[in-house]
Amino acid sequence: MAVDLAPLPARSVVLSLLLGSHPHRMSSAELVRAGEHFGVPASTTRVALTRAVAAGDLYREDGDYVLGERLARRQRRQDEAVLDAETPWDGSWELAVVVVAGRPGPERAALRDRLASYRLAELREGVWTRPANLSRPRGYADDPVLRCFTAVPDDDPAAMASGLWDLRAWAATGRELLDALGSTKDPTPRLAVAAQVVRHLAGDPLLPAALLPHGWPAAQMRAAYAGYQAELRALAIGR
Questions:
Q1: Distance separating alpha carbons of residues 122 and 157, to the nearest angstrom
Q2: What's the CA gap between 39 and 187, in Å, rounded?
Q3: Deepest in the core among 23, 34, 171, 224, taking most CB within 10 A?
Q4: What is the side-by-side strand order in the sheet with 127-131?
Q5: Tens of pLDDT, residues 188-221
Q6: Which residues pair with 95 in a beta bridge?
Q7: Residues 6 or more apart from 69 whose CB is under 8 A from it?
Q8: What does the DSSP assignment read for the chain?
Q9: For residues 191 and 132, is the Cβ–Cβ distance under 8 A?
């Protein structure tokens, strides 16, 4: 994989700043100052903010720009990928089985996206699973088209995991991004690399350590991105 160092568009810059901010709100002055740090003129940042509000990605509250609900959900998933979400694993797996047939294509696609956002993978058509090692609630279980339960499979769990996720490819890309974040010092391409790091972390299946290949880079990536978030916070408050 070639790491993309191209500058982010202005709108992606402001959304990345807010996605990396806790709480996810910043003033116009903070966003303009941060945008200039990444080579985005003040007028361009203001236009990007206006368009983001019109699209529902942001809204105004007490003079600040705040993430809209869709992006707030994305930030929660992003945080789950960055923070330690694991609990002790007893060998059981979550299972979600689709039991209603004949649904429209958009409904099927929405359900697939929802299950994938909970880091389940499709074992076969209509059967989704993952190790039951995460502390997050199983919010997908309220869907009426699903039957959900926990089971201990007879198959080798490591073989199941490697069949459900391309772990070696994910790790190789993760190491490339980690190296790029460590070696890129210029603020504009560094932000672009950091955005790729957090997108890649969102695809981390968050498996138990026993099922991961040697040298899994996710923990290092989370630590590196957490450090980068601290850089963004310092930038936003002008330190």
A1: 15
A2: 9
A3: 34
A4: 121-124, 127-131, 93-98, 146-151
A5: 999 999 999 988 988 899 999 999 999 999 999 9
A6: 129, 149
A7: none
A8: -----PPPPHHHHHHHHHHTSSSSEEEHHHHHHHHHHTT--HHHHHHHHHHHHHTTSEEEETTEEEE-HHHHHHHHHHHHHHS--B----S-EEEEEE---S--HHHHHHHHHHHHHTT-EEEETTEEEEES-B-S--GGGG-TTEEEEEE--SS-HHHHHHHHS-HHHHHHHHHHHHHHHHH--SHHHHHHHHHHHHHHHTT-----GGGSPTT--HHHHHHHHHHHHHHHHHHHTT-
A9: no
- Name the one residue in this structure whose structure tokens are 């003033």: 27
pLDDT tens digits along 51-78: 999 999 999 999 899 999 988 888 877 7
Looking only at the bridges linking them, the beta strands covering 58-61 and 64-67 are antiparallel
Say which residues have a Cβ less than 8 Å from residue 143's Cβ, sequence separation at least 6. 111, 114
The residue whose two tokens read 């890309």 is: 173
Token pair 């007490």 is found at 62
